[in-house]
């Protein structure tokens, strides 16, 4: 059956591909934050495991192609590995259910090892599934067309790649929104089960849709895999050369010619062409090492930035959508505007030159990321080391106060409701504290633990100076752009039921403070306070993202509430929009590198060798991710901007090597070489026929 001149079966294949890509990219978008915030891994371990997973996803297509071509055929391979894939997605979704092991209902899993084991099992199954079906689905789609449907086949591949981009774009927008929702049975947490569950459901839909069309598919029988043939030929050439290594055997023009005893000249010539291209692939993994960090390091960078775009709140993992959006815009712009302009300027912009420019642009994108990181680092507060203490003083009284840290280390002068920043002291040097306010003077000995931040509240009254020590217990900026909020009751009365939004801080005695509570970033909530059964309320100011505030309650009379906000940790001030330039440069790099790379490969090798080149190309992506994994684990650089610069420098070095290799590369026309081989085979056949005729004549005599 056909529709608009297309086999009806391909509509099932396009829908299947859209759902599968939605499933994969949706899950991958939130993966790094799941590692960091749910499994509580540090940035380096999270990055290493993320890139190990991506590397696996690009290694398994070789396995998938071998299974399909040599054993099961494309149809059965897609179905069996899709089942594995769906199970993997479901296992990851289950692993992210907080309440699975939260027996004491405190909001954090009690048996984190179980969650890690389930996550890793699920990710291995996903890598097997997504990688295994990757080389089969597009080729299976191509099989549905007859030989006279070349035009339809070509437009099918365009629609097919459009469905890939649409699936990845939509899922990268949706799953971070689902992740940011609050859900849970015992305690409300970020909703990873939903963020992973929706991609799992889409994968199940993808499988159902594909099976539904099974009666309409053309199923081509497995015809053997060209990669196995190529490997056998190369293996035979190497062993044969080793056997004939003594000087009595004459040298051959190329080491592959040692396979000529067993394999025909055509195959050997084709493999020579492929190896020439694969040799050029050697520097390419470094490009992918930078490119795939969009989903890891760049997403982690976005978590330390301000995602407030007016009425819209952008999640850190949503910034990855900038790439597919820009791809859709940039591919036609580059093809129809940039390349023709370069041609008009009489510049010979060969494919290898385009790829060199792409590598250079990717290193520039990382320089841009490093510049953004430097600005972010300026906003991150310095926390005390193990031998230091930090003290912030708040004057909660109505009189001016002077505080001296003895012996003569530091002194501050504060008016009413004024506070200092955190002042750093060597813990061993701090001995005592001298406070003068109004007519009163007090001295206190100091014995503070090292490596901590402390807040000192002071208040002068009729009988003397009251002091209040708060142990902040905060050693880093709040993660995920969340806010830490606490209250100080600066009234002589007890306050009951102090709430911010839905969170209750309980009862606050006169001149006392609550502990910090964690809130979702970017919100302003209603503050409610009850004094002697009378409620006062007011809307808080916006706390931004990644901040900590102490809210001082100064007055509660009738409905009127007077509070002062003391900033303990400043909010993220570098806007996420500053990531757009680095995404733009990297997308330009992808357009001139990735698109050109595959086109160039296919133009330089015979058509029956496309599978080998596809495998080689995917292998460069896998090796690129392994490079990131090694650097993330082995790097001794403490500053993130320095790591970005290191990657940029490595790519520039590789880019120079690639440019030299490209300079000495001579372009070939596979069709011309194939025609020559055909000609030679014809001549050889004619010679054989003449020889056989002559043999017949001789035998008659």
Automatic annotation (TrEMBL):
GO MF annotation: an example: symporter activity
Compartmental location: Apical cell membrane; Membrane
Pfam families referenced in this protein's UniProt entry, alphabetically: PTR2 (PF00854)
Record field: catalytic activity: L-phenylalanyl-L-phenylalanine(out) + H(+)(out) = L-phenylalanyl-L-phenylalanine(in) + H(+)(in); L-alanyl-L-lysine(out) + H(+)(out) = L-alanyl-L-lysine(in) + H(+)(in); glycyl-L-leucine(out) + H(+)(out) = glycyl-L-leucine(in) + H(+)(in); L-alanyl-L-proline(out) + H(+)(out) = L-alanyl-L-proline(in) + H(+)(in)
Matches recorded under Gene3D superfamilies: MFS general substrate transporter like domains
Keywords: Cell membrane, Glycoprotein, Membrane, Peptide transport, Protein transport, Symport, Transmembrane, Transmembrane helix, Transport
Record has Transport as a keyword: yes
GO biological process: protein transport
Residues passing through the membrane, by range: 22-41, 47-68, 75-94, 114-133, 154-174, 194-217, 273-291, 325-342, 354-374, 611-632, 644-665
Stretch forming the signal peptide: none
Keyword Cell membrane: yes
Topology in membrane: Multi-pass membrane protein
GO CC terms: apical plasma membrane
Protein role: Electrogenic proton-coupled amino-acid transporter that transports oligopeptides of 2 to 4 amino acids with a preference for dipeptides. Transports neutral and monovalently charged peptides with a proton to peptide stoichiometry of 1:1 or 2:1. Primarily responsible for the absorption of dietary di- and tripeptides from the small intestinal lumen. Mediates transepithelial transport of muramyl and N-formylated bacterial dipeptides contributing to recognition of pathogenic bacteria by the mucosal immune system.
Family, similarity comment: Belongs to the major facilitator superfamily. Proton-dependent oligopeptide transporter (POT/PTR) (TC 2.A.17) family.
Subunit structure: Interacts (via extracellular domain region) with trypsin.
Name of the protein: Solute carrier family 15 member 1
């Amino acid at each position: 059956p056909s529709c608009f001149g297309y086999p009806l079966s391909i509509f099932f294949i396009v829908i299947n591909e859209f759902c599968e890509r939605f499933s994969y990219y949706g899950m991958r978008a939130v993966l790094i934050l799941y590692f960091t915030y749910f499994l509580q891994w540090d940035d380096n371990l999270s990055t290493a495991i993320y890139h190990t997973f991506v590397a696996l996803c690009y290694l398994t297509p070789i396995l998938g192609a071998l299974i399909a071509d040599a054993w099961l055929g494309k149809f059965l391979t897609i179905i069996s590995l899709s089942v594995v894939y769906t199970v993997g997605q479901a296992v990851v979704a289950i692993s992210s259910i907080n309440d699975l092991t939260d027996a004491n209902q405190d909001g954090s899993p009690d048996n984190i090892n179980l969650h890690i084991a389930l996550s890793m099992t699920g990710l291995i199954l996903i890598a097997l599934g997504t990688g295994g079906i990757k080389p089969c689905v597009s080729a299976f789609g191509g099989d549905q067309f007859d030989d006279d449907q070349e035009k339809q086949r070509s437009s099918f591949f365009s629609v097919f790649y459009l469905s890939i981009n649409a699936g990845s774009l939509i899922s990268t927008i949706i799953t971070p929104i689902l992740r940011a929702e609050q859900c849970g049975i015992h305690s409300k947490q970020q909703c990873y089960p939903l963020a992973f569950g929706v991609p799992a459901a889409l994968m199940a839909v993808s499988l159902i849709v594909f099976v539904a069309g099974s009666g309409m598919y053309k199923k081509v029988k497995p015809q053997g895999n060209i990669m196995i043939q190529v490997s056998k030929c190369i293996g035979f050439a190497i062993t044969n050369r080793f056997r004939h290594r003594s000087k009595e055997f004459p040298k051959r023009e190329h080491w592959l010619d040692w396979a000529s005893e067993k394999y025909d000249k055509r195959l050997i010539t084709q493999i020579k062409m492929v190896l020439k291209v694969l040799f050029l692939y050697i520097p390419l993994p470094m490009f992918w090492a930078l490119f795939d960090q969009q989903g890891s390091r760049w997403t982690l960078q976005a978590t330390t930035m301000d995602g407030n775009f007016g009425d819209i709140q952008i999640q850190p993992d949503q910034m990855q959508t900038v790439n597919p959006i820009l791809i859709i815009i940039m591919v036609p712009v580059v093809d129809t505007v940039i390349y023709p302009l370069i041609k008009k300027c009489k510049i010979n912009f060969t494919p290898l030159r385009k790829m060199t420019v792409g590598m250079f642009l990717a290193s520039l994108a990382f320089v841009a990321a490093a510049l953004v990181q430097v600005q972010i680092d300026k906003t991150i507060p310095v926390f005390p080391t193990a031998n230091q203490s930090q003290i912030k003083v708040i004057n909660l009284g109505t009189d001016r106060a002077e505080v001296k840290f003895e012996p003569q280390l530091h002194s501050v002068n504060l008016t009413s409701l004024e506070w200092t920043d955190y002042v750093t002291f060597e813990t061993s040097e701090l001995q005592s504290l001298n406070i003068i306010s109004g007519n009163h003077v007090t001295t206190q000995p100091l014995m503070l633990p090292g490596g901590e931040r402390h807040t000192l509240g002071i208040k002068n009254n009729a009988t003397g100076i009251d002091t209040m020590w708060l142990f902040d217990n905060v050693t880093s900026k709040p993660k995920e752009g969340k806010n830490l909020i606490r209250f100080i009751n600066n009234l002589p009365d007890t306050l009951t039921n102090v709430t911010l939004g839905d969170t209750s801080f309980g009862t606050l005695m006169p001149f006392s403070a609550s502990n910090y509570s964690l809130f979702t970033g970017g919100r302003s909530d209603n503050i409610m306070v009850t004094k002697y059964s009378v409620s006062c309320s007011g809307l808080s100011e916006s706390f931004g993202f990644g901040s900590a505030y102490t809210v001082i309650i100064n007055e509660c009379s009738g409905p009127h509430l007077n509070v002062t906000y003391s900033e303990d940790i400043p909010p993220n001030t570098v806007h996420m929009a500053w990531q757009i330039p680095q995404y733009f440069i990297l997308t330009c790099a992808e357009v001139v590198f990735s698109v050109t790379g595959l086109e160039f490969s296919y133009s330089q090798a015979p058509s029956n060798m496309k599978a080998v080149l596809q495998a080689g190309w995917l292998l460069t992506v896998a090796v690129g991710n392994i490079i990131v994994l090694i650097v993330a684990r082995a790097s001794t650089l403490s500053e993130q901007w320095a790591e970005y610069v290191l990657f940029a420098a490595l790519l520039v070095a590789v880019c120079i090597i690639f440019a030299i290799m490209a300079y000495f590369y001579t372009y070939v026309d596979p069709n011309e070489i194939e025609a020559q081989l055909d000609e030679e085979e014809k001549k050889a056949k004619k010679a054989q026929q003449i020889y056989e005729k002559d043999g017949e004549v001789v035998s008659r005599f």
